[in-house]
């Protein structure tokens, strides 16, 4: 990606969300160069990790350094947004500290060396600018002065709202291992899922990953070894409900979000078995295999000699015997499956459990 606007020295500031992530970054602010504004808009229309993006006009360790940096910023980059006939507002955002109203006003007044010729409009400004102060990440040790300050023109907000609107708390059909919305969207983004893609989840469970993919317009399908999960039967995972209701299934989940038209189908099937015909290709395979912690890792089959072929059970009520499905086999099967059934350039996205005996503090 390269800068395509005529304006020089463009840098962008991304404000990343710290919550919903298991690790802590040393700062939630991330400076990016070598992009154009369309690239930034593209990122922000998909990202659930980014709160907002700004065209960075200046930055520094102190307000004094910020001033020097802002005064050096090319006037021709600023002028389209500071014209006399334009309207604007300036926000003050502080990370890890709350400023009183008077202090915010003081910060804005101190920016009087910037020549904004437009009119202030707090409700519907044409342009929004932001002074961002970073007070570090330690809530028990908040410095008096910010560790770093930035000033920029707001460009776009990320898709954090999706985390709330797709929360599993309000989802029609859930299970014990339903993947939370934020992580499902991150996976869909890693897979580069786009409109009209065909996406497959071989360990589909309650379909949380498919829901995120369907939000981006993909057609979705999946398999799971658990008959009850696929058919929405059995015990409910909700504390106040004993059994699943008649319409608790993946199709109903997609309907809840207005995406039923993207539902292809789900089937009961063992991911260790080859069931798909050769030549069938998915644009993405996105999955959360069982790790044997909250659900057992089983596959159909037996170590003993099987005397009766499966087709002989036709018409009978038959529960196949199962045997352990080791993690290494799960991942080997998944990679083999992806090698056969992904389009060229298609992506496989999955969780890999990692044992980390020590907590690493960043
Ligand atoms: C971690 S859960 C997936 C949860 C899912 N992402 C969701 O949001 O509900 C793993 C799923 O794999 C299924 N599973 C376990 N062994 C399997 C196998 N051999 N073949 C297919 N599915 C299997 C389990 O029934 C379970 O639903």
How many structural domains can be distinguished in the coordinates?
A: 2
Give every kind of bound small molecule, once each.
S-adenosylmethionine
Low-confidence stretches: none
**Basic shape:** elongated
Order of SSEs, N→C?
A: EEHEHHEHEEEHHEHEHHEEEEHE
Cα separation of the termini:
30 Å
Q: Which architecture of the largest domain would the CATH scheme give at its second level?
A: 3-Layer(aba) Sandwich
What percentage of amino acids are in beta strands?
15-25%
Structural class: alpha/beta
Work out the helix count: 10
Here the CATH topology of the largest domain equals Rossmann fold
How helical, in percent, are the residues? 10-25%
Task: Please tell me how large the radius of gyration is.
Answer: 26 Å
Mean pLDDT across every amino acid position: 90
CATH class of the largest domain, anyone? Alpha Beta
């Amino acid at each position: 990606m390269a800068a395509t606007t005529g304006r020089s020295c463009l840098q962008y500031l991304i404000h990343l969300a710290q919550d919903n992530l298991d690790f802590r970054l040393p700062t939630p602010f991330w400076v990016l160069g070598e992009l154009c504004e369309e690239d930034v808009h593209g990122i922000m229309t998909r990202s659930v990790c980014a709160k907002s993006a700004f065209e960075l006009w200046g930055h520094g360790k102190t307000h004094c350094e910020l001033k020097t940096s802002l005064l050096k910023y090319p006037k021709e980059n600023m002028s389209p947004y500071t014209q006399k006939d334009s309207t604007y507002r300036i926000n003050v955002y502080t990370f890890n500290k709350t400023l009183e109203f008077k202090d915010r006003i003081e910060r804005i007044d101190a920016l009087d060396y910037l020549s904004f010729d437009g009119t202030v409009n707090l409700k519907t400004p044409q342009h929004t600018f932001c002074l961002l102060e970073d007070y570090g990440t330690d809530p028990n040790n908040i410095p008096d002065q910010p560790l770093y300050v930035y000033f920029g023109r707001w460009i776009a907000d990320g898709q954090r709202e999706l985390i709330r609107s797709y929360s599993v708390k309000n989802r029609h059909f859930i299970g014990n291992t339903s993947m939370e919305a934020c992580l499902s969207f991150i996976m869909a983004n890693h897979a580069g899922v786009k409109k009209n893609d065909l996406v497959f989840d071989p360990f589909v469970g309650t379909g949380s990953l498919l829901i995120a993919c369907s939000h981006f317009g993909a057609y979705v399908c999946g398999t799971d070894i658990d008959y009850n999960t696929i058919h929405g039967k059995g015990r409910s995972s909700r504390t106040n409900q004993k059994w699943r209701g008649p319409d608790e299934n993946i199709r109903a989940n997609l309907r809840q979000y207005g995406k039923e038209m993207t539902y292809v189908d789900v089937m009961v099937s063992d991911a260790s078995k080859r069931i798909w015909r050769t030549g069938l290709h998915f644009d993405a395979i996105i999955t959360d295999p069982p790790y044997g912690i909250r659900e057992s890792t089983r596959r159909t089959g037996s170590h003993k000699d099987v005397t009766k072929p499966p087709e002989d059970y036709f018409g009978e009520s038959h529960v196949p015997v199962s045997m352990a499905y080791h993690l290494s086999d799960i991942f080997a099967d998944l990679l083999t499956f992806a090698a056969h059934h992904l389009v060229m350039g298609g992506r496989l996205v999955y969780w890999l459990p990692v044992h980390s005996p020590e907590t690493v503090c960043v």
